[in-house]
Amino acid sequence: MSSPKLAFLGLGVMGYPMAGHLQKAGYDVTVYNRTATKAVAWVETYGGSRAATPAAAAEEADIIFACVGNDHDLRQVALGTDGAFNALKPGAIFVDHTTVSATIARELDQAARALGCHFLDAPVSGGQAGAENGALTIMLGGEEEPSATVDPILQCYARKTKLLGTAGSGQLAKMVNQICIAGVVQGLSEGLHFAKEAGLDAAAVIEVISKGAAQSWQMENRAQTMIDNQFDFGFAVDWMRKDLDIVLDEAENNGADLPVTRLVNDFYSEVQQKGGNRWDTSSLITRLHNRKVK
Ligand code: NAP
């Protein structure tokens, strides 16, 4: 394919800079955003063009990327009245970066095939900073050929991409990612809570144990901000609840036993109840503030 024409649907915290990387790399990008002002600002910043509906953005595109909120939102931009699937060119590739269920990934894969097109689920990890710095990790599900076509383009904002199997496999891998994060954040929260109750200087403890086996991305990047009670660093509790609900639904299907993930999902629900919906996920520690069991 000579330089493909691209469309990008959803210019949120993640999509705005991701689409920007594509245009900066020299691709011809048409963007769509439900709230048009963001699309206007994007075109002023990066160039390219904007369309009024997902279908209008998709009609000339060889590859269409989406990064919206949840299953419902993805269904609307893909299959809704003005959805992109109404206008896909034969052979077009639809790449979804939203974190959604494996079920909708498989549904869109079937819908794409019926149109002579391709679908790839491609959820991302790395947060707002990863999107802005072009350093995302991308977990792919779908067929090898469209994945190979899209991969060089994904390099505009990825530092690692991997095809993990048929449609839905990328979403299943993202679920593994979220399961791992949930347990680690709770462990770090309990460690910092214990350090405080034990009368230790928590920052000094982290300085030393982060050089040993307790080290983690969460410890490196969030321990100090958790000690400082700052919870404005990207991935929101509401998004994590969405993701863990998806994980627990999938576990119902495949029989996986996830006792800690289930508990941490309930703990995040407590954080929401005290108004922490938009706090970042390290705010899990706030449940433990001023808490003693005896
Ligand atoms: P966000 O800032 O809330 O942006 C969501 C985008 O989706 C906006 O462009 C929004 O349009 C659009 N949208 C939502 N519902 C829609 C609908 N029904 N029809 C059309 N457009 C709709 O979210 P984000 O942080 O970019 O996250 C996007 C996805 O990436 C989520 O699935 C999230 O779980 C995942 N993710 C996020 C992070 C992170 O750190 N933020 C990290 C990894 C993965 P409007 O502008 O009109 O609201």
From TrEMBL:
<comment type="similarity">
    <text>Belongs to the HIBADH-related family.</text>
</comment>
<dbReference type="GO" id="GO:0016491">
    <property type="term" value="F:oxidoreductase activity"/>
</dbReference>
<feature type="domain" description="6-phosphogluconate dehydrogenase NADP-binding">
    <location>
        <begin position="5"/>
        <end position="163"/>
    </location>
</feature>
<dbReference type="Pfam" id="PF03446">
    <property type="entry name" value="NAD_binding_2"/>
</dbReference>
<dbReference type="Pfam" id="PF14833">
    <property type="entry name" value="NAD_binding_11"/>
</dbReference>
<dbReference type="GO" id="GO:0050661">
    <property type="term" value="F:NADP binding"/>
</dbReference>
<dbReference type="InterPro" id="IPR036291">
    <property type="entry name" value="NAD(P)-bd_dom_sf"/>
</dbReference>
<dbReference type="InterPro" id="IPR013328">
    <property type="entry name" value="6PGD_dom2"/>
</dbReference>
<keyword id="KW-0560">Oxidoreductase</keyword>
<dbReference type="InterPro" id="IPR015815">
    <property type="entry name" value="HIBADH-related"/>
</dbReference>
<dbReference type="InterPro" id="IPR002204">
    <property type="entry name" value="3-OH-isobutyrate_DH-rel_CS"/>
</dbReference>
<keyword id="KW-0520">NAD</keyword>
<dbReference type="InterPro" id="IPR008927">
    <property type="entry name" value="6-PGluconate_DH-like_C_sf"/>
</dbReference>
<dbReference type="InterPro" id="IPR006115">
    <property type="entry name" value="6PGDH_NADP-bd"/>
</dbReference>
<dbReference type="GO" id="GO:0051287">
    <property type="term" value="F:NAD binding"/>
</dbReference>
<protein>
    <submittedName>
        <fullName>Oxidoreductase</fullName>
    </submittedName>
</protein>
<feature type="domain" description="3-hydroxyisobutyrate dehydrogenase-like NAD-binding">
    <location>
        <begin position="168"/>
        <end position="286"/>
    </location>
</feature>
<dbReference type="GO" id="GO:0016054">
    <property type="term" value="P:organic acid catabolic process"/>
</dbReference>
<feature type="active site">
    <location>
        <position position="174"/>
    </location>
</feature>
<dbReference type="InterPro" id="IPR029154">
    <property type="entry name" value="HIBADH-like_NADP-bd"/>
</dbReference>
